[in-house]
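User: I'm preparing a small set of examples for a lab meeting where we compare how different chains pack in three dimensions. I only have the primary sequence for this one, and I'd like the structure in token form so I can line it up with the others. Please keep the answer compact; I'll paste it straight into my notes.
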Amino acid sequence: MTSTYFESDPPFEEDDERRSGCSRDHRIDCVQEVVALIVTPEGLPLTHEVSTGNTADAATLPKASRR
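Assistant: Understood. Below is the structure token output for the 67-residue chain.
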């Protein structure tokens, strides 16, 4: 799980996933999106999920466990 930020000015389209949130990069001035990658114990990727930038980490677990 990580996040990436965008150095751009809101507002964005309503369906855009970029939102203000708890930035791991401590960039409260930038909007972000959350990226989750599910891998095997060997590190091989199984699936990924991209969520809006204001999504808490704990909120991503139920979605990921259904895959």
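A couple of notes for your slides: Residues 24 and 40 are 24 Å apart (CA to CA). Helices lie at 57-65.

User: Perfect, thanks.
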